[in-house]
Amino acid sequence: MKKVMEAAERIRRLEVQGATNVALTAVRALVEQMKVSRARDRASALAEIAKARAILFESRETEPFMRNAIRYIEWRMREADWRTVEELQDLIQGVSEELLKGFREARRRIAEVGSRRILPGTRVLTHCHSSAVNLVLREARGRGVEFEVVCTETRPIYQGRITARELLEAGIRTTMIVDSAVRSFMKEVDLVVVGSDAITSEGNIINKIGTSLIALAAQEARVPFYVITELLKFDPQTIHGDFEAIEERSTAEVWPDAPEGLAIRNPAFDVTRRDYIHGIICEEGVISPHSILEAVRRRYPWILEYGASA
Length: 310
Ligand code: RUB
Known about the structure:
Layout: H1 2-12, H2 19-35, H3 42-59, H4 64-79, H5 85-115, E1 123-126, H6 131-142, E2 148-152, H7 160-169, E3 173-177, H8 182-186, E4 191-194, E5 198-199, E6 205-208, H9 211-220, E7 225-228, E8 269-272, E9 279-282, E10 285-287, H10 292-299, H11 301-306
Parallel strand pairs: 1-2, 1-4, 2-3, 4-7, 7-9
Antiparallel strand pairs: 5-6, 6-8, 9-10
Helix pairs in contact: 1-2, 1-3, 2-3, 2-4, 2-5, 3-4, 4-5, 5-6
The chain binds ribulose-1,5-diphosphate.
Ribulose-1,5-diphosphate (RUB) binds next to helix 2, helix 6 and strand 6.
């Protein structure tokens, strides 16, 4: 399980961050692992896939995109008729390519739809680092739209710096603020866009800690708040009543040499209620959080059919 364990470790240590990068890394690791599989028969190959799944799922808690992708591949392997490990390797390669192709198409659609919301002169506020958000902003810039971005630094580990670097490289005017300055700047922006790690059946979204406070400030200032996300981040387990697990990270991220006896909490994500979300910009277009289940059913019925298994 060397390749899978290495990938899981990189995900755990945040060398790979952001829900999309985590999912793509996990899929590639599973395919690479099966390419060197020594399994002799169907049962042992499927047991290997199940073991890889368990290791990858362990790496980070709040990652339904990764879970959906891995479950999809596993399901296809269980359903398909194959006998030798060579056949399995070809199949897993084909299925993962198909999944990635669909993902790239979803991204193209998100870039197209989202960038239309970035009008000339717009001031956009964003939080953390989301590859989907940056994709939309770069696409708008690529179409020649002049606009500005205000980005938070995103404590505790400053993913906002990744956002700032990428936006500057794309020629977008960017200003960084500390997280606690969001309310002061809200009256100066026209639009808030954030990414998502998970979407629940009720249309709530889970994203980097601090997102829900930003949504609150946006509502108070009547600034539209949009989430840019692939529907593949929908968590099917929430349909069955489970709450999305919120990962709690090392306290050293907050204060490495904190005084003894001090309690520190470091949740990585928070939940933004659908009432604060104007729209979800996804591969189905701009949709209301209320229609999330319908959109998922239309686009990815398999997520609902077996996505909550295992
Ligand atoms: C990253 C984060 C991002 C989402 C969306 O948190 O909250 O906004 O993952 O990213 P972390 P993307 O750095 O803890 O993983 O749009 O790239 O999937």
